[in-house]
Amino acid sequence: MPRKPVGKLLLFGATGDLAQRMLLPSLYGLHADGLLPDGLTITGTARSENDDASYRAFAKTALEKFVPKDRMDEKAVESFLVRVGYQPLDATDIDHYKQLSDKVGDVSGGLAIFLSTAPSLFEAVIRGLEGAGLAGETVRIGLEKPLGYDLASSREINDTVATAFPEERTFRIDHYLGKETVQNILALRFGNSFFEPVWNARGIDNVQITISETVGLEERAAYYDGAGALRDMVANHMLQLLALVAMEPPARFDGNAIRDEKAKVFRSLRQIKPEDAARDTVTGQYGPGASGGEIVRSYTDELEKASTTETFVAIKAHVDNWRWQGVPFYLRTGKRMPTRRSEIAIQFKPVPHSMFSNRGGLLQPNVLIIRLQPEEYVQLLVMAKEPGLDREGIRLREVPLNLSLDAEFAGSRRRIAYERLLLDLIEGDQTLFVRRDEVEAQWTWIDAIREGWVANDMKPKSYPSGSWGPSAAVALTERDGVTWQDD
Q1: How do the domains of the chain map onto residue ranges?
Q2: Which of 31, 96, 175, 237 is catalytic?
Q3: pLDDT over 80 (residue 412)
Q4: Residue 436: which pLDDT band, with cuts at 50, 70 and 90?
Q5: Cα separation, 216 vs 224, whole angstroms
Q6: What's the pTM?
Q7: What topology is assigned to 177-413+435-478 in CATH?
Q8: 96 catalytic, yes or no?
């Protein structure tokens, strides 16, 4: 159950892109719907020199730019901005935290901190908060990624945070877990009786998870070139999706039960050994090509220097437990792909015997597609008979059974992920946040892959912008008789 909501919220990085696009619009949306606690104050902090008035003007501009016009209400905006204040902070200057503490005021009624900062600053920030009395028992902290770049650095950050914030007051954010469709994976699996009997190695042939982007570096060059696709996407979003698909049924919908089952999946992931890295993983880097009808430059031309950072990765993974033995999980993510898509495709095994084969009827295995973005829907591909008298044989065709979440819940406002996650942080519900043992099990698996790349001197293969990656990614599935879901 959620704990008592806090009375104050402190936003680090309050003038950054994330705050403008997501945090401020999300908090405004919650305020406009009457979901924020009465009297909750929101203090923004960053290096930029602002006072309350100039930051409120900054916040209002962000709302006007990023909140849909039909959601803007002048009175709601004005009453929201009354909640908002600002305090400049040099995160490396310990003396500044006393001024921040004075600005925030009494935290005995509870304080939630949203910390979005470079990993190199975690030590200074945690020490500063602790020294200024902003890390006591009434304070909880939300941590925005990146939280390290491997197991060792992740442990170092987690150890630093744990000196001031125990696990029950630490909320690690993966915004994918706030998406409605991601949570619908749980409803689909555990709220319907007909899926669970076949949701295993006896009923499922393979699982594909694709997160594709059409964009290139945009404004993330400094971060991305040090991270790459494996750390940026696979180490968090994709492995969290894999866990939701593969986990055992939790006893109840709460933070401990769900995260216990996800952690078991991560510990069951088969480590990819160096001798298997070239066979079970593919890396790529986009070259020049066409995207969205425009000619675009290569990754290195955008970066303006040579680089061996991967912008594409495909992996054949296995979950070594009773339920999933022998079922491959194919993961694929990349930049400059043909379409923007986040999708899970679950291919079931074919029927054991076709009674239609002697009449020319051809069967395809059933496929369940869970689309997370840009559209949100669940689609089940099933076999149906084409109308006709069948004098030349029975004609069977694959047809979709569609559940469009946008259409079915047209009367309900679709919330962005940060609305839910910020409200859960304020209320103290950890269900949709990531626990430390999950993070460390994920990094253990990711680090083994990178060690394999180094051992085999694997460099990313070039692929044209606007394509689905290197040809080796096609071979990764086709040698198993599987085709990527690219429609």
Answers
A1: 8-173, 177-413+435-478
A2: 237
A3: no
A4: very high
A5: 10
A6: 0.91
A7: Dihydrodipicolinate Reductase; domain 2 (3.30.360)
A8: no
